[in-house]
């Protein structure tokens, strides 16, 4: 996969922005595709086969380029048994727990609500970073966290029904599982990274999901409509492998701080697409909560970017 040009030119900046928009759009569409498919397919086999196909597709992309293939082989040789255990742990958290819990949640809450809750992940990462990574928080970061927590409270807007509260809590547990996976990845210096790590963790995580589906008796339906199969292909290829590929491509061209500031667009795309496709809407409190969460993420990433450039904070 060819890296984006360096950040020095206007053309590179536009290309990087377009790549980030494409990645977050595809991520947002995955919630809509998942919501449609949950009408016909149980959550565990749906997510398991989704990420198994995405892992195979990602591996095929890596194998198509000699440089990427050689790097992947070298990184594979450097993996110890301890490294494999960590990769398995990341796969269990990042794919099995995050996506299993998320799709379980989407059985009772909207796609937009699920996206808002999942993408509170950076808020939890920042909140736990002082303890887990020994990273100090600035006053601006503390203010951003406070806004984020208020946004989370407002985003859980279904206080009238126990069924929806369960979905909200599962969505938050999904975000916290993603947080744990992120902190482990940051703490442990694995010899594999990027798309190579992502392919392995998806493969391991999907295998665990399919195992759990078998144990719990959640089976793939005997027949699906052509429309459902098209949704599934979209979910597994563009919305999963495609979004991750574009994301890692953007990281090479624009850096983690700038790329991460685009993440809040994923829930926005989800809300727009789910309204257009599924007729879903958010309540006023959920919409305000989503806006506050987006503002919190923007403030945290702006702070992080300024600290990297050693600029004074306001």
Automatic annotation (TrEMBL):
Domain of life: Bacteria
Compartments where found: Membrane
Family in the record: Belongs to the EamA transporter family.
Spans through the membrane: 12-34, 46-64, 84-105, 111-133, 142-159, 165-185, 197-217, 229-250, 262-278, 284-300
Designated name of the protein: EamA family transporter
Keywords for this protein: Membrane, Transmembrane, Transmembrane helix
Domain EamA: 19-155, 166-300
Membrane disposition: Multi-pass membrane protein
Keyword NAD set for record: no
């Amino acid at each position: 996969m060819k890296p984006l040009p360096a950040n020095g030119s206007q053309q590179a900046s536009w290309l990087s922005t377009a790549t980030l928009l494409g990645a977050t759009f595809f991520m947002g569409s995955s919630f809509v595709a998942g919501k449609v498919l949950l009408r016909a397919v149980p959550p565990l086999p749906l997510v398991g086969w989704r990420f198994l196909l995405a892992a195979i597709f990602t591996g095929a992309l890596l194998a198509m380029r000699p440089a990427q293939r050689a790097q992947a082989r070298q990184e594979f040789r450097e993996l110890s048994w301890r490294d494999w255990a960590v990769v398995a742990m990341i796969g269990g958290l990042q794919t099995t727990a995050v996506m299993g819990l998320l799709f379980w949640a989407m059985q009772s809450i909207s796609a937009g609500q699920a996206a808002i809750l999942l993408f509170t992940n950076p808020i939890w990462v920042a909140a736990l970073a002082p303890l887990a990574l020994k990273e100090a928080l600035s006053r601006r970061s503390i203010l951003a966290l406070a806004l984020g927590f208020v946004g989370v409270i407002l985003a859980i807007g279904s206080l009238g029904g126990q069924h929806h509260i369960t979905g909200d809590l599962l969505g938050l547990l999904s975000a916290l599982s993603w947080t744990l996976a992120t902190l482990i990845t940051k703490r442990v210096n694995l010899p594999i990274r990027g798309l190579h790590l992502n392919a392995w963790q998806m493969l391991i995580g999907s295998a665990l999901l399919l195992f759990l589906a078998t144990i719990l008796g959640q089976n793939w339906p005997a027949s699906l409509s052509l429309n459902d199969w098209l949704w599934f292909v979209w979910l597994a290829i563009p919305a999963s492998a495609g979004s991750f590929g574009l994301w890692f491509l953007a990281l090479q061209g624009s850096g983690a701080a700038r790329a991460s500031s685009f993440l809040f667009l994923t829930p926005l795309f989800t809300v727009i697409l789910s309204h257009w496709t599924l007729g879903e809407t958010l309540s006023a409190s959920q919409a305000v909560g989503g806006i506050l969460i987006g503002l919190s993420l923007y403030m945290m990433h702006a702070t992080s970017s300024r600290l990297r450039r050693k600029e004074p904070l306001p």
